[in-house]
Design goal:
By secondary structure, the protein is mostly helical. Helix content is 57%, strand content 10%. The strands form three sheets. It has a two-stranded antiparallel sheet. The chain is elongated and about 120 Å long. The relative contact order is 0.18.
Length: 320
Amino acid sequence: MEFSIEEQDRLTHMLETYQSIEAFEKKYKKINYVQFDYAVMNDLTLFTIEMDYDFESLEKKLDHIIKVLPAIKNIFSKPILHLKEQDEVLPVESVRRITSDTIHHIAGHSELWSDITKDGIKPLKLLTRTYKDNYGIYENIVFCKAIDDILSFVRTHMAILKNLIYTNQTIEINLLERVHHLSYFLALGKLHTGYNRNFDQYYVISVRCLKKLESISDSIVPRLKRPVYKYNQGYNKNIKLNKTNILSMHKDYHQIYALLKYFKNQKIEPPKEITNKEIDGLQKNYFDFCLLLILFSIGHFNFTCDEEKEFLLKKINLKF
């Protein structure tokens, strides 16, 4: 079964997330409801975040990008470019430069004459040399690759952090709210306990990193219509990074080169290929997660059971 990179990332994340369910089932092969309820707040977090999310590493990368932002703005405003020369035959009123080639050309092309007078030839069109800005030099392509890499990095982590921060805010308990059953607050409190255990220590740094991500995005996105980026959209995505004179000597382009080298040295591993066996295991673990969540919910909404009766987590046989 083939998956896109985005799908592989998502599936890999889900595999890691629901592995804790399998570990919990192995630890508590038989359990009663009281023990299960206690485990939700201590050993099993039914509402959580991925604990391997490296906030410190993320902030270091963001600080590195922020240091390069002045150079990025300078290149957007004043990129290095080459003048592209080409000969064109244009109407007389559009011609600004006449060379010796112009005279030779008009002498041999009578179809470009408008009239012949005693003073000479009156031309309709003339050969002239025009100069156009060429943004497609190697260094500007490297710059565009850096911009795309930064934006991809920023968008990915902004989505993750916004989801984490929003979730933490929405689960806060409003004790003055009277529309819900009291057991609702009890259940929510237990879930919140497990969630806070995992996330409270990261909340401050999450907000700080999100502000840095938004600052980077606000600095780059409005400038994407500048010619240096606009005219290089079709570049080869697999371009190799070579240290040219401009990338070595120019202060702004050198910072772009150093940034790409920095990200390359991070050794970010591509998502591993997901096998059919792992997909089957993922489906089972997710199904077990839903069962445990249902079991937890039933016990908090006016349903009761024999709290001393032991049951198998893999095959819940309990009457409420």
